[in-house]
Write a structure and sequence with these properties.
Residues 34-224 form the BD-FAE-like domain. The protein is 31% helix and 18% strand. The protein has helices at 61-69, 91-107, 123-131, 163-168, 175-180, 184-194, 219-231, 257-268; strands at 17-20, 28-32, 40-46, 73-77, 111-121, 153-157, 206-211, 236-241. It has an 8-stranded mixed beta sheet, sandwiched between helices.
């Protein structure tokens, strides 16, 4: 099966609105609306790119436009990334938390607050699953939420969900250490606060789609998170896609796309 890497540069329709959750060009949220009347089920998209500055939200345009065509209100968050003055630790996590906290008020009555799914690809999978885990952080942590977020679930697409394992495997040429400022032996408090595998159980349903031919985020990473989540009692399901690489899960023209739509429908049901 051909990899869908060309989706990274494929043109897509512009978003309907660009909302701001803070100052600067990177604290924004692209919004695409379906044709039907609202309130709409919401998909919050968190893009990947190993948390690095050279990868922004624009490469998710084809996927987000396709999801809006399916009847979803699609909100795609941007955030500061490694290589930018406010990116990395803790700025990247600060931004994602701030965006999600602000989003309900920004979307208003167009969104159905009882039908919200977080979708994250690659490094965005870590950020999405972490966002659903913030109530598991200690009360003194600045990202702590006092209660479990109101979500139908999280859809991880080739997500970097076990940061310790990803660091051991040197995924993205040391991308995890770049995000967290170092390795677990010297920065364990960062890993403990950011690694979804260390924050289970969340009580939030998760579906993990993982290509078995993925050269960037190998299946072992999703398998490790799924095993930990299920053992902790979370309603987590790993769906492996034989022959699929890293980008098909964000490509609406790929053979994997029907599986993405099925997983979203299952979470929204």
């Amino acid at each position: 099966m051909a990899d869908s890497r060309d989706v990274l540069t494929r043109p897509a329709p512009a978003p309907d609105r660009v909302l701001r959750y803070g100052e600067g060009p990177d604290r924004v949220i692209d919004v695409r609306y379906p044709v039907a009347e609202g309130p709409h089920p919401v998909i919050v998209v968190v893009h990947g790119g190993f948390w690095r500055a050279e990868y922004d939200r624009t490469h998710t345009g084809p996927m987000c436009a396709a999801l809006a065509d399916e009847g979803y209100l699609v909100a795609t968050i941007e955030y500061h990334r490694v290589g930018q003055p406010e990116g990395g630790w803790p700025g990247t996590l600060d931004d994602v938390a701030a965006a999600l906290d602000a989003l309900p008020g920004l979307l208003g009555a167009s969104a159905d607050p009882d039908r919200v799914v977080l979708l994250g690809h690659s490094a965005g999978g870590q950020l999405a699953m972490w966002s659903a885990s913030r109530h598991r952080l200690p009360a003194h942590n600045p990202w702590h939420l006092p209660r479990r977020p109101t979500l139908r679930g999280v859809l991880s697409l080739a997500g970097v969900l076990d940061l310790v394992l990803a660091n051991e495997e040197q995924l993205g040429d040391g991308a995890v250490a770049g995000l967290l400022g170092g390795h677990p032996d010297s920065h364990w408090e960062h890993y403990a606060a950011a690694d979804p595998t260390r924050l289970v159980p969340t009580g939030v349903r998760g579906i993990l789609l993982q290509g078995l031919a993925d050269p960037w985020v190998p299946p072992e990473v999703s398998r490790s998170y799924a095993a930990a989540a299920v053992a902790a009692g979370d309603p987590t399901e790993l769906r492996e896609l034989p022959g699929e690489g890293h980008y098909g899960v964000i490509d609406p023209d790929s053979a994997a796309w029907p599986e993405v739509l099925r997983a979203l429908a299952d979470l929204m049901a």
